Amino acid sequence: MLPTRRALNEVGIVARAYDAIVIGGGHNGLTTAAYLAQAGKKVVVLERRHVLGGAAVTEEVYPGFKFTVCSYVCSLLRPQIIRDLDLPSHGFEVIPQESSFLPLPDGRYLFYRGDEEDTFQAVAKFSRRDAEAMPKFGRLMARMAKFIAPTLTMTPPDVGSLNPSEIRKLLALNKQVQTLTEDELYTFARLMTMSAADYLDEWFETDVVKASLCSSGIIGTMLGPRSPGTAYVLMHHYMGEIDGAYRSWGYVRGGMGMVSESIARAARLFGAEIRVNAEVRHILVQDGRATGVELASGEKLYAKVIASGADPKRTFLKMIEKSDLPADFVRGIENFKIEGSSGKVNLALKEAPSFSCLPGNGVHLQGAISIGPSVDYIEKAYDDAKYGDYSHRPYVDMCVPSTLDPTLAPPGKHLMSCFIQYAPYTLRKGTWEERREAFGDTVLDTLEEYIPNLRKIILHRQVLSPWDLEQMIGLTGGNIFHGELTPDQLLFLRPTAGWAQYRMPLKGLYLCGSGAHPGGGVMGAPGLNAAREILKDWSLLRV
Question: What's the CATH number for 94-252+342-424+426-464?
């Protein structure tokens, strides 16, 4: 039983009773809180930092510049959440990112806007065959994404259970598979098992085209483009959509923090309480159930339900005593792969960057920009990380969001957001505290091969390693997805076999972050799905 308020007061403990406590004010935790509050539950969200958002956050790191500190573009956020919570009325607005720009070391470049004809003409400069293949490839990947999309907002079946409800879920998956043609089924099997590079070799002949596409298969994962499993990561990024168009990405006006803030505003409107500077130190356990939390301040809060938006290792290995959990579950969480592979360099600029291959402030700066001219280049970047060092010629996925959203920087000035592969959490030599700025210098050296005057226009730089992401945001290992998105950690295996239904071994405890199905990215699906299961269980959760 939960302690009574009178009993707690008698021993001098400050306590507050809630229906649900959500650990972490990231976008998934806020989504869970919003749905529970919408259902009439008394909810409190506890965020350890001074600002909401987790990795989907906007911060004025340098005066006048609103940095999209971690995540930087939006696409995966589920349309159902946008509709259910009426996020546009709370300030959520996406500005489409409608172009792709890949500069090459020899002065050439691949640049195309979103329409099919423009893409054809741009790719045809390198290969007419590849230009003809691009729309066919895009349509097939969109078909695969459409096939996968319904699974994002479902609760995975427990394949080891003979419960009729779990068997019905398996049958539903089988029915969904039957919507694929034989060729599509083989394609799906290849995407789940192949490397991004090998799969793209089946479609294209030009290295620049393959490099521009295969980069989506290595974002946020400690794998190279030739590693099996990266074809799925490529498909994962195709599942993003804006207004029904797959693989559409965009900037959120006001930065990615407005994703989290708009969800928080909806949650507050429904009655949720949201607290910052409220770090959870322990999850309280009594008689096999989670009963509340203890904050770093010593304050204790109690509730019927505890939902953790923190990653699985932080939740179960740091907030709970191992002795309170089944040994096989603890072993599964300990073996969960979560080492980060990415860094971030954010730049405040006194003017727009000017590429030597395409000078000036043009439309090519308004979309996705990548430094990764070949598959071999990206694979060599991975080789450095594989042996415990950051890439000395890294792959850089970058954007200049201030070109489309002037609210992010002072007039005439710009932000440049640079996502870096690879930066392993564990370094063979030295520590990230010692080598962070050298890593930042390496990134700038790489960029200056394409933007010669870059250092001259930098007003301020922020360099974040995986270690910094762990310290600042609370991401174990600095992993942006709360765990690798490899086939052995997906669907009914996330976070570990037998515990993929958001309910955890302690009664009343749920996982609602990206360490649960369907995984990482700013999509909100784990938060939505966890809220649904909590509400389904509500009447059974006696205290």
Answer: 3.90.660
